[in-house]
Amino acid sequence: MYFDEAEIYVESGQGGDGMVHFHREKYKPRGGPDGGDGGRGGDVILEVNPNLNTLFNFQHRSKYQAEDGKMGGPNNMSGKSAKDLIIEVPPGTLIYDQVSGDLLGDLKEDDQQLVVAKGGRGGRGNQHFATSRNQTPRMAERGEPGEARTLRLELKLIADVGIVGVPNAGKSSLLAMGTNAKPKIANYPFTTLSPNLGVAKLDVDTVLVLADIPGLIEGAHEGVGLGFAFLRHIQRTRVLIHVLDGLSEDPLSDFSQINSEMALFDEKIREKPQIVAFNKMDLPDVQDKWPSVRQELSDLGYEAMAISTVTKENVKNLLWHAAALLKEAPEPAIEETLPVYKAAEDPKAFTISRTEDGWVVRGEAIERAAAMTYWEHRESVRRFQRLMENIGVEEALREEGVEEGDNVFIGEYLLEWQE
Length: 419
Ligand SMILES: Nc1nc2c(ncn2[C@@H]2O[C@H](COP(=O)(O)OP(=O)(O)OP(=O)(O)O)[C@@H](O)[C@H]2O)c(=O)[nH]1
Ligand SMILES: [Mg+2]
Prior knowledge:
The chain is 21% helix and 23% strand. The protein is of the alpha/beta class. The strands form 4 sheets. A 6-stranded mixed beta sheet has the order 10-11-9-12-13-14, with helices on both faces. It has a 5-stranded mixed beta sheet with strand order 3-1-8-5-6, with no helix packed on it. The longest helix is centred in the last third of the chain and has 16 residues, at 284-299. 41% of the residues are buried. Bound molecules: guanosine-5'-triphosphate and magnesium ion. Guanosine-5'-triphosphate binds next to α1.
């Protein structure tokens, strides 16, 4: 249903495991350690594709998983790293972490990228663990696990010019006439349910991106009609074309209504340059009304043009006029609603809790280290124990009163406490 919001689940690839292996050659004494490193797991990356203008694709697919890195091999051979998984999004996509609500990024420029889940690094093979005292290390690291997260995507169209007005005014007709877009047009209100983008190429150097915004009515800023979901698309446009329905009983009251709805939603919209387009001038009734409407608008300080999307009267002029205003219009101010980027939690932080089954230790660094340990190799386990000591988990458990034989859960791993 919604094309401008989506929820997706992403998971990066796990790193490949490092290998425990010793060099072997015919007729030669046993060689040193030569277990290769695991390859890196694939990242999940969002990338702007300027040809997209909706989040519609995510209706059909919402789960994205990058591949895992390959395991290291003998002869110091590194495992193959996995390819990154690239997900294309339209320009103007805001990315939020669904759980924390944090804004992770705002993708606007062509080909701009954001890594949303970093692939795990490959585990090191035993070639790295030889020391002067230990020439035959029977240990290696397992690959680092990938990251999983749920993201909320929100699209803010990036159009230069927003076409606004009451339902049925002829906004979509104008977009269809002036650009490459083919929006639905019909003689009833709320034909357009979501903004359409169109590109008008006026000449080689002058290209306008126009957004046809669904019809606005009184109370739109409070969610009436199609609501404010689409008002926010107007925020990023720089110039507005306000289409008046020439057939309306009172085009001027329509005009002020829409303006106040926009201002109630965001005061700054009022500052955007606005061109008024009095539409349906092919009809005699409408032509009769034009002189008085024009006068009243001019008294209010607005420049108005009379157009017809049927005969195309003044449509090109209108777009050229918009292009001229665009040159002077300032870049829209950066979102005032952007939340602050929060610093990530200290990865070495951990918590300890006691349950019926035993002690539960939770923390990013310690859980990762557990996942990267080969529990079948004593030396790997010792290394893990040193880490427990270094980041203070061991001391904290002792202070809490851990005893010989107690169960200690580190993430998914169960250990038995031994002094
Ligand atoms: N005679 C005449 N009819 C027009 C003109 N422009 C649009 N219309 C008609 O007005 C009706 C509404 O046109 P749309 O372009 O769908 O209007 P809209 O503003 O996009 O309407 P919503 O999407 O419902 O907000 C359609 O029946 C169009 O054919 C015009 O210049 N002259
Ligand atoms: Mg429409």
